[in-house]
Write a structure and sequence with these properties.
alpha/beta, three-stranded mixed sheet, 14 strands, globular
């Protein structure tokens, strides 16, 4: 039987598979299983092995309720286990294990609201990117839900002082693994780009403002998210709701002994508390790992020298309607105003302003269209553009794009409308897997142009990882982002550079929801 490509890493030898000009190595442990006494602890080193370890199958996904991910992208088909701290490497190769060096490295962090997802989903297969870009692609797992984000003083780690943010610590451990080992796969540890979508994009943003992670990568791409963490007090309050639901005392021993299924079942109230006015739990400002809020970190110069690209889709929140009861979606102006009022916003002024701006451009301005635009701006577009503008203002490399490719998928949303340029539509295009499954074909849409746009986007992401600029021959007009012109590339049926797209709405939302600088920092 012919053996696959072999690579020696710091914990032992692994054997992968070769296909289509790419050597893949899957399910590689980058930290010890976070079980038993390692639950709610910083990731510990891997126990080395002897002989050759098979690396041809993805590792287990973290414990989760996969309902939402299955709806959008289809199921992963993987088992679930707390033993989930693995990663996957895709490198150009011919199966011999012989390879050069100095290749750019792209490390992908999956999304799923810090509650669902896995690196092992076909939507994250790195084969196409590795082959097309002549670079090394790494995809990583990390702890999810309460197992990844629970924070409480009883969990304090004596060595690090951490009381939470375990998922972020996992991601840093994976990046350190890349720094130590990626040269064995032909990658350059000095040229690492991290990228992620949704919670993965929020993770990229958090890592960019994390002093302990900043030296581990050179470039970053935040997709459909922003580096806006949660506050410490909210996390501590949420932990109490979980402890009450579990009916256990606040102690490390009790939480480490708790049944994993019981923790999963007790999570809904914890998640609801952390969501607040946003859509998902997030890491929190702990004064150490994340020492302060994004604006304050920018002012220290920590992100100076980082090449940063921010992308979002035009209709981010349309897909959220799939997971809400029908009565939760505003169908009239009065409904929408009440919804915004519950968020502490002047709904009348926002509705009038958004409607006037959209009407002037000939865009839909009924209550459904306004809800999608307002929520997309509030939760994703405006915070991410604020962070990018602050980064650019310090003279750093900054780039912005909006995906306008439309899905013609029509789930049960008001008015029998399609999802448009919805959340996650860009993911299968970037990985070149948009035709891999019925679910991904449905998500991207059946209209012509998907193959062409996928090629354009892959080349832009590859160029950014190689040079720090996403401008390619097809996107020659793309200029860096700055706070004055706010040049943003539109990626869809047409490829067009637009200055300050939806500028009136951005200004309205920035006045209604002050940027992160207004938030209290941790003493």
């Amino acid at each position: 039987m012919t053996s696959g490509p072999m690579v020696e890493i710091d914990s032992g030898r692994i054997e992968g598979r070769a296909a289509d000009g790419v050597d893949s190595f899957k399910g590689i442990p980058y930290a010890a299983p976070p079980v038993g006494r390692l639950r709610f602890r910083p990731p510990a080193p891997v126990e080395p092995w002897t002989g050759s370890r098979p690396a041809s199958a993805y590792g287990a996904e973290a414990p989760q309720d996969s309902g939402r991910v299955d709806t959008l992208k289809g199921p992963s088909g993987l088992a679930q286990s707390e033993d989930c701290l693995t990663l996957n490497v895709f490198a150009p190769g011919d199966g011999t294990g012989e390879r050069g060096g100095g290749l750019p490295v792209m490390v992908f962090i999956h999304g799923g609201g810090f509650s669902t997802g896995t690196s092992g989903h076909i939507a994250h297969d790195g084969t196409v990117l590795a082959r097309r870009g002549e670079l090394v692609v790494v995809t990583i797992n990390y702890r999810l839900g309460a197992l990844g984000l629970l924070a409480h003083p009883c969990l304090r780690d004596d060595a690090s002082g951490q009381i939470g943010n375990w998922a972020l610590l996992d991601q840093i451990a994976a990046l350190r693994w890349v720094n130590r080992n990626i040269g064995q796969f032909g990658g350059d540890p000095g040229n690492v780009t991290i990228f992620g979508l949704s919670a993965g994009g929020g993770s990229v943003g958090a890592l960019a403002i994390c002093p302990g992670a900043r030296a581990l990568f050179r470039r970053a791409i935040i997709q459909s998210s922003s580096p806006l963490p949660a506050d410490r007090a909210t996390h501590l309050e949420a932990a109490e709701t979980l402890l009450d639901k579990l009916g256990i005392e606040p102690s490390l021993a009790a939480l480490q002994a708790a049944d994993c299924d019981a923790i999963q079942a007790a999570q809904p109230n914890w998640v609801a508390k952390l969501q607040g006015t946003r859509t998902a739990p997030r890491p929190f400002v702990d004064g150490d790992l994340l020492p302060d809020w994004p604006d304050a970190i920018l002012a220290t110069g920590l992100t100076d020298g980082l090449d940063l690209m921010v992308s979002h889709t035009r209709d981010e929140i349309s897909s959220l309607a799939m997971f809400l009861p029908p009565e939760a979606i505003p169908r009239t102006d009065a409904d929408l105003e009440r919804f915004l009022g519950r968020l502490g916003l002047d709904g009348g002024a926002l509705i009038a302003g958004y409607r006037a701006a959209r009407r002037a451009r000939g865009e839909a301005h009924d209550p459904w269209a306004l809800w999608v635009a307002l929520q997309s701006d509030r939760l994703i577009r405006v915070p991410s553009m604020h962070f990018l503008a602050g980064h650019a203002a310090r003279g750093n490399g900054a780039w912005a794009c909006t995906i306008t490719r439309e899905s013609d998928w029509r789930p049960a949303v008001p008015g029998d409308r399609d999802l448009g340029a919805c959340h996650v539509i860009d993911l299968p295009l970037i990985f070149g897997v948009h035709d891999a499954t019925p679910e991904l074909r449905r998500l991207v849409g059946g209209t012509p142009g998907a193959d062409e746009l996928a090629t354009v986007m892959q080349d832009a992401w590859i160029a950014f990882a190689q040079t720090g600029s996403p401008a390619t021959e097809a996107l020659a007009a793309w200029r860096p982002y700055d706070p004055e012109t706010r040049a943003t590339m539109m990626l869809g049926d047409e490829l067009t550079l637009v200055e300050d797209p939806w500028g009136p709405e951005r200004e309205l939302m920035e006045r209604a929801v002050p940027p992160p600088a207004a938030l209290r920092s941790v003493a």
